[in-house]
Each structure stands twice: as structure tokens, then as C-alpha cells.
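FORM 12-B: Structure-to-Sequence Request
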């Protein structure tokens, strides 16, 4: 198949391609059905395909759709890995497990968030302890969620945002908005007030498929930030710690740390990567996120604001709703042959480096 054929136009098509490729590769398949349906009434699930010895000491995990609509990218690479036989020739003590659609509801509805408006990549916090506070987000929240999208409330909100950026800079605004927050369920980058369905499904798959291994490596695919088609490598591990040093040894000095000033990402709490580390507390774990650029950051943020407004106040089936859905898709899916090729080549390179790092660990 051509590279473009690995990528899909919808969640349903992506899931069908993934399951077919996994079956053809001889993978062991496990599905965790989601209780809700897609917009077309179709089934939703977190699916995983496992290839290699059941008791392999080392496992490479690839993950897609942590942020729902971003799943077009990771799913395309996962289908490619299965078709291109990434699992072929692995060392005898190693397996690969492709986790398709951490957040299937968001993928199917082409939203970044889960069914309860939660950013899954901010949901892996300890809910028995005081939740992280984000006073900077509290300040900008009213401007992010205006009552109208084409009227005076939006105009006033945009003016306030522009004034904030003029005073503090674009990155300070991005950090305030995207760092994550737990106090505004109707807002952006909401980390939730309890574990989501997706988090619970990930915890279950970790218990059932990953515990007891000597080493697990995770590659989590994301989109929306940075130069178009380029995949920045992001590590959330503490600089200088053993996990971070191992990540740099595997991938080189390309590895970036959120909030450091040289990354497209602000510092965040409750990420998938920290979640996997915690779930595999007796297993050595190495995690990396790949962030592929699409559109300029201000366009991506506008798409997120529009999507949030649409599900609070609008009608998805209206002309305005359809236009907003188009904007959201464009913000997180390059959807052209060059972008697909860039994503695939970068994803394959990082997967091969991960296999090499695991084999030498």
C-alpha cells in the first residue's frame, strides 16, 4: 500500500484499517468497548494489537488519539507499522503493542477532548490530593469561552486576549491556556475532576498487558504545534534524571522539555507519559511524545476556542458548526501527501531508534 493509504478520513475508516492490518500481521487483538457511540452511530473502542512473545521482557508501545482528532496521525503510522512489519526481526525478548485510540470518542467526533470535555493528557493526576491550580488560566478563562462566536462578546474577548499577549507575550498566553486546569469544566485544557473512561481503560490495559515486564517504551503521537510536518520529540521527565538521560541517549539532543523555552509545548501536569510511568512503577519505562506541526499556533488555538463554543452554545449541524469542524480538523490533521509522508518517515525513524534503545537496555 502507498503511504497515503495508511491514513484515513474518519475514525471508522481508521479503526477498520487498523484491525484489518493487525489481523493480517497475526497480532493478538484486544478491544475495550466505549459505552457511547460515534456521530454515525458506530461502535467506539480502545483497541490494541500485540505482536511477539506473550512473556516478552521488553515491549514497545505506540499510542494514538490521546487527543482524539489528533488520532489521524498516529493511526496512519500504526497501520504503516503493521503493514511494513516493524515487528519483524525484533529480538526474541521483545514485543510491540500498538494502542489504537486512547480517546476513541474524541477521535470519532473529531474533538481533542473526551466525551466529558476532559483533556486526557491532563487527567493523570492524583485526585485524592489537592488538584494543581492554574491562576493564570483563571484570568484568561472568560475570554476563551465567549457567549457568542460572531458578535460583541467574541469581539470583546478577542480584544482582551490581544491586550494580554501584548503585555505578556504569546508564549505566556499559551502557557496559561494549555498548562491544564481543573476548575472550569466548560473551559479549555480541562484536566477533569475524576479519572475519565479513557484513563481507566489505559490503567486496565497496563495491568493486563504491561505489568511484570523489565522495560516498556512508549511513543505517543500528537499534532498541532510546531512547523508543519515536523515532529518535535518531547519528554516530560525531570532533566538530569535517569529516565530523561536514557531518553536523550536513545534519541539524541533533539529531545525537548516542555516549558524550557526551546520546546513548542508549555509545561503541563497529568500527562499520558507520567501516567504510564506511574502505572509501571516496578518496570523501567521510557516515554516520548512526538508533536507534529500543522497550522500556525494562533489558528490552532482559535480552532480550539471555536470547538469549545460550538459544544457549549452552537449546533454542530449548522453552517457555522460545519465550518468550525473543518477548522478543527485542519488544525490537527495535515491531510495531504507531503504531510503524511513527513509524519510516516519521522515516525518510522523514532520507532526504529526505540527498538534499538530497548534492545540495548
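FORM 12-B RESPONSE
SEQUENCE OUT:
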Amino acid at each position: 500500500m502507498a503511504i497515503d493509504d495508511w491514513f484515513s478520513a474518519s475514525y471508522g475508516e481508521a479503526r477498520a484499517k487498523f484491525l484489518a492490518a493487525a489481523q493480517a500481521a497475526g497480532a493478538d487483538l484486544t478491544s475495550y468497548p466505549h459505552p457511547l457511540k460515534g456521530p454515525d452511530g458506530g461502535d467506539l473502542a480502545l483497541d490494541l494489537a500485540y505482536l511477539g512473545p506473550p512473556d516478552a521482557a521488553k515491549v514497545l508501545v505506540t499510542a494514538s488519539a490521546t487527543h482524539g482528532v489528533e488520532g489521524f496521525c498516529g493511526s496512519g503510522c500504526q497501520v504503516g507499522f503493521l503493514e511494513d512489519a516493524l515487528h519483524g526481526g525484533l529480538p526474541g525478548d521483545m514485543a510491540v503493542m500498538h494502542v489504537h485510540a486512547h480517546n476513541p470518542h474524541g477521535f470519532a467526533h473529531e474533538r481533542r477532548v473526551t466525551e466529558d470535555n476532559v483533556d486526557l493528557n491532563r487527567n493523570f493526576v492524583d485526585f485524592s490530593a489537592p488538584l494543581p491550580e492554574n491562576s493564570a488560566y483563571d484570568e484568561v478563562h472568560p475570554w476563551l469561552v465567549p457567549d457568542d462566536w460572531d458578535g460583541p462578546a467574541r469581539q470583546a474577548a478577542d480584544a482582551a486576549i490581544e491586550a494580554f499577549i501584548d503585555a505578556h507575550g504569546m508564549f505566556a498566553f499559551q502557557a496559561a491556556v494549555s498548562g491544564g486546569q481543573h476548575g472550569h469544566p466548560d473551559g479549555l485544557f480541562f484536566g477533569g475532576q475524576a479519572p475519565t473512561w479513557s484513563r481507566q481503560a489505559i490503567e486496565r490495559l497496563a495491568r493486563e498487558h504491561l505489568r511484570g515486564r523489565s522495560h516498556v517504551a512508549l511513543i505517543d503521537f500528537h499534532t498541532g504545534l510546531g512547523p508543519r510536518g515536523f515532529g518535535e520529540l518531547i519528554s516530560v521527565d525531570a532533566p538530569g534524571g535517569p529516565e530523561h538521560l536514557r531518553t536523550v541517549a536513545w534519541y539524541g539532543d533533539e529531545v525537548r522539555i516542555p516549558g524550557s523555552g526551546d520546546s513548542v509545548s508549555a509545561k503541563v501536569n497529568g500527562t499520558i507519559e507520567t501516567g504510564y510511568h506511574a502505572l509501571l512503577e516496578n518496570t523501567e519505562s521510557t516515554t516520548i511524545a512526538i508533536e507534529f506541526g500543522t497550522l500556525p499556533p494562533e489558528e490552532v488555538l482559535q480552532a480550539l476556542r471555536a470547538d469549545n463554543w460550538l459544544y457549549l452554545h452552537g449546533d454542530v449541524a449548522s453552517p457555522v458548526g460545519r465550518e468550525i469542524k473543518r477548522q478543527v480538523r485542519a488544525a490537527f490533521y495535515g491531510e495531504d501527501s507531503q504531510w503524511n509522508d513527513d509524519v510516516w518517515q519521522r515516525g518510522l525513524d523514532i520507532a526504529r531508534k526505540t527498538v534499538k534503545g530497548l534492545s540495548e537496555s
